[in-house]
Every structure is written in structure tokens, then in C-alpha cells.
Amino acid sequence: MSEETLGWVLTYDSYDPDREALHEALCTLGNGYFATRGASPDTADDGTHYPGTYLAGGYNRLTSEVSGRKVENEDLVNLPNWLPLSFCIGEGPWFHIDEVEILSYSQSLDLKRGLLLREIRARDAEGRITRWSEKRLVSMAERHLAALSVTITPENWSGKMQFRSGLDGSVSNNGVARYRQLASQHLDILELDHLGADTLYLRARTNQSRIELAMAARTLVHCEVCDVHPEYETHGSDRRIWQIVTCEAREGAPITAEKVVALHNSRDWAIAEAGLEAKRTLGHAGDFAQLQAAHEIAWRHLWEDCDIELTDGDMAVTELKLRVHIFHCLQTASPHSIDLDVGIPARGWHGEAYRGHIFWDELFIFPFLSLRLPTLTRALLRYRYRRLPEAKRAAREEGFEGAMFPWQSGSNGREETQKLHLNPESGRWNPDNTHRQRHINAAIAFNIWQYYEATDDYEFLTSFGAEMFLEIARFWASIATYNAEIDRYEIKGVMGPDEYHTAYPGIDASAEGGIDNNAYTNVMVAWLMSRTEDVLDAIPTAQAQRLCETMGLSPEERERWYEISRKLRVPFHDDGIISQFEGYDDLEEFDWDGYREKYDDIQRLDRILEAEDDAVNRYKASKQADVLMLFYLFTADELYQIFERLGYPFGPEHLRRNVEYYMARTSHGSTLSGVAHAWVLARSDRPRSWKHFQHTLDSDIADVQGGTTPEGIHTGAMAGTIDLVQRCFVGIDMRGNTLHFDPALPDEIKRIRVRLRYRRQVLDVDVNHDSLVIESRSYSASSIKLAYRGHYRDLAPGETCRFRLIKPDERLRDENRARESRNAAE
Ligand code: BGC
Question: Domains of the chain (ranges plus CATH)?
Fold first, then answer.
């Protein structure tokens, strides 16, 4: 199979059943409201194909019995399949991709137009050759509509043919092998009907969350060059309904079946009842061509705001991969999501892995959105705000104050991390303790502040952001304990982003798990505590007073936050290596070379070692960037300041040594790891950074983890690679009401052009190795502040600003000078 990589179209030019699930995930079409995998419409769930459709935020809980325990999981429900469409010649058999001889095959995801296209030439057992030409869309213009068009051209036969078009409610959640022992029947089918001859109707309800879903599908058959006289017959079973449309086919004359589908659910705004609305929406929907025209306009507008151009170089492949990433991020969260109560799930609405849950991955996703479609970030942050009461309850239940958001979030903000998870390597169900990743609470606060820096949206801060931020600070202050012996605050029993270390060696992770003083967590908390006063200062004084009053926030409590911000403990070892957590240095070194030889792939060391009756907890081995996340989130200068404030010596030399130390001890078991490492190395080791960048670009497209992408794309890695180009390579940093630039383009990229939105201005940024040009396109806002390596400019709406970039050797001299003057000042 070869993947043709032209700037805007991802093409597969052969059919490979073994890669079909991967292609289904990568060819998913969605609009932020719902998404449908790119499965062949003539197939059902059969081990090769998995036609899933998912509603954004469409969750349901079921209880299963696992290893003698009852466990409840909240899943992203696989909705009835609206795709079924096939044909047969005479009385059959029905066309099925796996049961014909394929003469040629091509499947393309057209990113610019948001279309999935499939062209197949196939010969049946009787030697009859047929061309199948398919177009599909999930409308970005009208969120409740999708459409599928299949044109059949008989090449060497004529006579009676039939189309079969259906709505299939016999689906279950069966997309992830690891979950197959768990309960999976989420839907009650309430109604199956047909409206007139050409329209089918299905109404279903999720059996716990009681979301009612309604689909209405109209299938029309026509031929441009002949009269087909279609005759309809409707059939049904207890969970499915379908139509057989019979017509006359003529050799060489293309016949088209066009299926338009409307989907509503009982949580939609401005509806009387989902079923009624599905019928009404379908009744007013145009044909495929009309839907496509509106859909393409909507996509064009999104691309105008969100594209990245890597011009003047041999970057077509990289550009295409970035566009695939932009495309899938926008299908997961789009302007249609703004009105919904949804977060952005780690695996898109593209499959069932991680059950559609929302994690800290937002940290990697929001910068892309905030600088392009900031109203979207605002909406996604409000998903968190609506769950603030639940986060406060969760903190209280654990004996803490403030708000403790869950590691995995779904419908109502309860902790959704599974209690037990299956290790496919050993076949054992083990306790899942990853909920101890309290650092999610630092990520949410960080995201709030970054959003504010990008937008200056103090109304958001006033109405929602500040309260969340301060409740999170309160949580951290209550979980932190004071150690008088060292005069430091400590945070115990948590986990860092590295999910391998759930507890100290030999300790039962479920009973007294967690590790102490995770450096990433503690530094984030130190930063967060030091920002609390800035948050209060950023909102109008009267509102700040009201908020303090409502929260019962006393000057003493704020004073304590200040103290914590200066006295959090960060463990070190080996003279300047930040210990990932307290006692990390006592762990054993891991035999990386030996294990790389023993296993093809050691990304999931935790599973490998558990299957060997060993435990990854014993080793200096991390799943993903943990300490190095700090170098990803903060600029070097910011970090030096944070450490200085904490009273720990930390400078450029420490930074370099820490990067090397942890790079050598990380298995990259999460796709997020590549983003962080590419970023961290971007200035110090460009070739290695480029390798991580390219590897992360391939995470999903090449399914580098060997089987995870078919279960859903990795939204964090996708958005993270876009952000690497837009913020890391262009060197953007939003700090102190200023948009700082410090470009460091990899040698491979000659020029980057992006359109960014910053504080109500639209900026066209054009950067190469010599110059940086920023053109403000908006005429409706006040000036913003820009800076390039300490040179500040005000940019009024409509103005253009140019900087000549210093060369790498000048940069080095510049940095040395800055360091010397810093040392002299000390
Ligand atoms: C990673 C987490 C991430 C989650 C969802 C896990 O494998 O370790 O950091 O949040 O996947 O993407």
C-alpha cells in the first residue's frame, strides 16, 4: 500500500483488510457534534470493519463483573450505524468489499473540502465488472446532517439491480479489544419506521444516561442518462430497518443512490423532541450537491483561520500530515461544539479508546485553538466550569478543600478513570491508580491563564476563570503539608505525568499508592500559587472583592498561598538533576539495551514488566516526559525565575543535563511524549528534535504504537505537532500582555506562514530564517504589544511589523552576553 501525500489529500491506493481499522479511524468524518468512522458502507462490525458513529459527549454507564468485582464504566456510545448502503445485481449476492475481486481501489480524504472519496472497480464471481464511486460528508455547515452518495457503473452488464440502504441499531460498543469482556449494550431501540417510500426512521435511547437519539435517512436513486424507475420496499427486524430499491441498470450508465441523514438528540437546544426534529431537519435538507456546497464553504472558512503553510521547501509531506492533524482536531471540536456541553476527548470522537474521556491533554490542544478559534477554548473551559461543583465535592470527599478535578472526565465530572484495567500482555486485570494524577488541576489552571494571555478575555476570567483558578489553588494548599524540619511544603501520594510510577517499589499502589513531591507537580503548583494575585488583579476590583467574599477567601489564606509558592519542595539528586519525585534516585537503573533486544517494541514497559511478574515501579524508567514537561511549558527564563523564587539554583547548564538525563530514561509510551521532547530539543539539538517531530507527525498516520490509532486518533499529539510549528518553531510565547517571538526554524523548514488571533487582532505571520513579518489584518481592535528578543513594538490594527532575525551564532553571543550580565547582577 502506498500513501500518496499531496498537499491536501490523504490517499490510500489499495485495499488492505489488515489496515482497514486504521484507515477507518483516519478517514473519520465529523463536525464537532458527531463523527462517523470511514468504514465501507457495505460492511458491519466483523473483525475487519468497524463502522462507529459517536455523538460528542454521548456517554452512558454500564456495570460489568470483572474478576469477581462489579465495576462501572462510562463509555462513549457507538450510535446506530447510518452508513449501510450496498447493491446487488439481479437477486444477489450483495456487494461486500471482502467478497469481490478488486481490480482497482482508491480511498482519499480530501481535507480542503472535508470529503471522503472511494473509487472501486470490482469483478464478481460471474465476471461482471462494476465501478463503485463514493462520496461522503458529515456536514460542517449544518451539524445535524450527513450524506453519502454511491454511483454504480455497470461496465459489462445490464439488467435488474437493487440497492439496500439501512439504519442499523444492532450495534454495540465493540471497538476496543481490551474492553470486550465488559458490558457493551448501551442502546434501547424505541422506534423503527418509514416515512413515505424513501425515508427511514430510527429512535433509540441510551439505557443509563437516557439520551434519546433519532435518525431519519432519505435514499434517492437516479440516473443522469436513463430512466431507472426505482421501486421501494421497506423491511425491518427488531433493531434494524432497511429499504430495497429495485431499478433497471444499463451497461455504461451510472446510477446513483444518494442517502441524506439527519441526527438529533434529546440534549439539543431549540428542539421540541429529537425524533420530530430529525424528520423536520431531513425534510428541509437539500440534496448531496447542495449539502456539499455549503459544507465546502464552512471548511474553507475554517482553513482560512487554521491552516499552516510551509512554503519554499520540500515540505509537502510534512504539510499534508499537519493538515491531517488540523482536520481531525477541527472535526473533534469545531464551532458547532461551542454551544455544547463537551470537552475535547483524548482520542477524538473517532473510536472507543479511553471512552471519549477528557484528560490533561487539553494542555497540548488549547494553544492551537486559543490562537485560532479562541471562542472554542472558552467553550471547552466552560465544560470544566460546569463541573466545578463536582470537583469541590470530590475534594471534600478526600478530605481536601477547593476543587479537585478528575483525571478522566466524562458526563458529570465524576472521576471516570477505570478501576481495573486489562494488561493484554499478561491477560490480568490490575487496579488502575492513574487517578492519582492530580496534576490535571495544575493543567486546568495553566490553561485558564494561557487562554487569558491569548485573548485578554477578562470577562471570562471574571465570570468563570478566576473562581476555577482560585478553587484549584485552594485544593493545592490543602493537599500540601508543611515539613518543619526542612521548612518546605510537600505534596504526597500523587502521580506525575509519567504513569509508570504509581507507588514506591513493593508498596500496594491501591492502598497507599502514589509518590511524594513529584517535581513537575510541585513546580506547577509553585507557579500557580504565584499567579493567584495576578488573577485577582486582572479582574475588576469590585468583582475580585465579591469573589473573595463568595469563596470566603481571607488575606491569611492568600498569604499562605504566597508562602507555599516560595517554599514548595523540589527534590534534586546528582548535583542539579531534578528528581522526578522524592526517592527517584534510589530506584534501579533499567536495562534499556537488553529489553530493546528482547522485545520489538518497549513503549509499554509497564505491561511488559507486569507480564514478567516484575514491576516498572522499581526502575528509573518513565512512560513519557515528566520533569521535562516543565521545559515544555515554560521558557528557560521563566523556569530560572520559578526556581530562583523557590530558592533552588538552576541555570542553563542544569537544563541541558536534565534533558539528557531524562531523555535516556523514557520509553515514549504516550504519543504526547514526542511533542514534549521535540519541543525541549528544538533549540539545543535540532536534528534530534526534528526526529521526534516527524515521529509524532506519524503517530496516527503510521500508527506508530502498533494498534492504538484504529481505536481513535490522538488529539493531544495531533494538536501538539501543529503547536510545535506555530509556537515552538515560530518561537511564540504569551507573557505579560505581550506576544513574544523568537523564531528558531528547523533547517528543513525554509518558511512558515500562519494566521493567528491574538487579543482581538488577526495576525498574518510570515517567518523564514532571516526575517519575521507580522501583519495585522483586523481593523476593529486596539494595539497589541509585540516583542522580538527584547525589542518591543506596538502594533495597531492594520499595521505591519518587520524584524530582521539574528543568525544562530549572533544568537549564541547574545545569550552569552545576557547570561554574563545576569551573573554580574547576582
Ligand atoms: C498518557 C496520558 C494521556 C492519556 C490520554 C495516556 O497514555 O499517559 O498522559 O493523558 O494517555 O491521551
Answer: 9-306 (2.70.98.40), 309-386+696-826 (2.60.420.10)
